[in-house]
Amino acid sequence: MITQLTPNLAVDRIEPSAEFFSKVGFEVTVQVPEDDHMGFAILVNGTQQIMFQTRTSIKDDCPEIEDASTGSPVLIFITVPDVKAVAQALNGYDVAMDWRETFYGSTEIGFREPGGHIVTFAQFPAEEA
Q1: Residue 122 lies in domain
Q2: Could you give the number of structural domains in the chain?
Q3: Whole-prediction pTM
Q4: Contact 63, 75 (CB under 8 A)
Q5: Please, what sign has the CA dihedral across residues 9, 6, 84, 96?
Q6: Do 10 and 55 meet the contact criterion of CB atoms below 8 Å apart?
Q7: What does each C-alpha distance from 41 to 50, 104, 115, 124 come to in angstroms?
Q8: Within this chain, do residues 32 and 50 fall inside the same structural domain, yes or no?
Q9: Which helix or strand (DSSP H or E) is residue 120 part of?
């Protein structure tokens, strides 16, 4: 029934979020301009993708869901083969959740990406480098 699930995250500006995600292998593959910046973008890493849309673009594009762009930040959970390499690549970004070992067996660290959303990167023992 479902072939793909892609979050579309509301942000004030896409470029800082795109730079954050580029550090872990995402590339902007689609972008729609809005004045002097991106209003919408699709970022892809292999078979994974994430969309970003500015709050003003959401308001212009679909005013009936404008309130969807003003809620709490989205929490994103990403499984990676080498969480230490990810943390190294994101050095300097805001750590939202310190290193931890979970009851379900992963080693995790969480960052607040520039758009305000929390991104947790997790490595499970079978995937250790």
Answers
A1: 72-129
A2: 2
A3: 0.90
A4: no
A5: positive
A6: yes
A7: 8, 34, 13, 30
A8: yes
A9: strand 118-123
Beta strands 48-54 and 107-112: pairing type?
unpaired
H helix intervals, 40-89: 55-61, 83-89
CB neighbour burial string for 78-112, b if at least 16 within 10 angstroms, e if fewer = bebeebeebbebbeebeebeeeeeeeeebbbbbbb
Residue ending a domain, among 56, 71, 86, is 71
**pLDDT digit string, tens, across residues 61-85:** 988 887 877 778 899 999 999 999 9
The H or E element containing residue 123 is strand 118-123
Check whether residue 54 and residue 20 sit in a common domain.
Answer: yes
| Strand ranges in 14-117 using DSSP code E only, listed in sequence order | 27-34, 37-45, 48-54, 75-79, 94-101, 107-112
76 and 65 in a common domain:
no
The residue whose two tokens read 């993708």 is 49
pLDDT at 93: 98
**Which class for 23: exposed (0-12), middle (13-18), buried (19 or more C-beta within 10 A)?**
middle
